[in-house]
Automatic annotation (TrEMBL):
It comes from Champsocephalus gunnari (Mackerel icefish). The lineage of its organism: Eukaryota, Metazoa, Chordata, Craniata, Vertebrata. InterPro entries: ARM-type_fold, Parkin_co-regulated_protein. Pfam families: ParcG (PF10274). This is PARK2 co-regulated. GO terms for cellular component: cytosol; neuron projection; vesicle. GO terms for molecular function: Hsp70 protein binding; Hsp90 protein binding.
Length: 222
């Protein structure tokens, strides 16, 4: 071996010895993102909702009969607010979604296409509190009318990617698991519950569409 080759090899070894090994960059799958839309907050601050908080800020009161509301206008707005984390916006949005779904009946189904982007945006914040609130809203949505579950199936490709990221996240130590179960803030369990409801109420095409987006999901119908 020539002196030049030996010298080159020595230099390479010295460089490798002194270099710092840098791992691959973090993918950021769990990194929180801010909400894409602040439309809900803007409407709230302008006083444009027919709903108000009680003085103790622990309840809400509608100024009109919920059944008389324009669901195409107000239900997407309340779903838009699911991405909020600050009080009173977060509470106000959750309460609005809950009340409108509870009293909506046949008015809910035609609005489904308008709810998909707000749902997707809320889930894409990657905020655990927001995801849990959105999963609970989805569960109530599925149960709110006869064919609502089936109407959601074509939108699984927009809704379920975040499910696949967080489905294995569990609260598994100390008092946290008790608190998480009481408040239903265990993302992994809520995702499993929601997928089961999607399959159960989504009709014959639900399972194959869930399986395509969440490969580890096992059918609840077997």
């Amino acid at each position: 071996m020539s002196r030049e080759v030996k010298s080159t090899m020595k230099a390479v070894k010295a460089t490798m010895k002194n270099s710092v090994v840098v791992g691959p960059p973090a993918a950021g799958a769990f990194r929180e993102r801010p909400p894409k839309s602040r439309t809900f907050r803007m409407f709230y601050e302008c006083g444009d909702f027919p709903m108000a908080l009680h003085r103790n800020a622990k309840g809400s009161q509608w100024r009109v009969d919920i059944e008389q509301l324009d669901y195409h206008h107000y239900l997407p707005l309340f779903f838009n607010g699911l991405g909020e984390t600050e009080h009173p916006y977060e509470f106000f949005a959750r309460q609005g979604v809950h009340d409108m779904l509870e009293h909506g009946g046949t008015k809910i189904l035609p609005v489904i296409p308008q709810l998909i982007i707000p749902i997707k945006n809320a889930l894409n914040t990657r905020n655990q509190q927001v995801i849990c609130n959105t999963l609970k809203a989805l569960q109530q949505l599925v149960m709110s009318g006869g064919t609502v579950g089936e109407a959601l199936v074509p939108y699984f490709r927009q809704i379920l990617p975040i499910f696949n990221i967080f489905k294995n996240m569990k609260i598994n130590s100390g008092d946290g698991i008790v608190y998480g179960q009481q408040k239903r803030q265990n993302i992994g369990e809520l995702i499993q519950e929601t997928l089961v409801m999607f399959e159960r109420y989504g009709g014959k095409d639900a399972f194959i569409n869930i399986k395509y987006m969440v490969p580890t999901y096992q059918s609840c119908m077997v």
